[in-house]
Amino acid sequence: MEYLFSYGTLRSKEIQMRVFNKFLTGTQDQLLGYKLKSLQIEEEFGMADYVVVVASENASDIIHGVAFAVSNADLAKADQFESNSYKRVQVTLKSGIIAWVYIENL
Question: What string of pLDDT tens digits covers the 106 residues of the chain?
Fold first, then answer.
């Protein structure tokens, strides 16, 4: 079992059903030393506004989200869902859980 930290669209039950064909279970957690940045992604009907995680110079910056328990197959589905503007990396959450998170793909 792996963990995926979500701070955005993957927390939506509707998106979870579309991407994973099931609801994910998780717990509230926090990512320290990172901040959210606005990001525009071109979609089928134009540009859409999203957020992306970027490292912060301030260790006290915090992102609230959910650590979802997922399988490797679920991670592969999430990778397909996320655009090339994101890349998946491992981080340690405030709880001590090691989780995957999508950050800015520079």
Answer: 999 999 988 999 999 999 999 999 999 999 999 999 887 656 655 656 778 889 999 989 999 999 999 999 999 999 999 878 789 999 999 999 999 999 988 7
Return the bridge partners of 98, or none: 92
CA separation (Å) from 25 to 38, 52, 88?
27, 22, 20
Secondary structure (H, E, C), 11-52: HCHHHHHHHHCCCCCEEEEEEECEEEEEEEEEECCEEEEEEE
> Per the structure block, which two tokens stand in for 47?
């540009």
- Bridge partners of 21? none
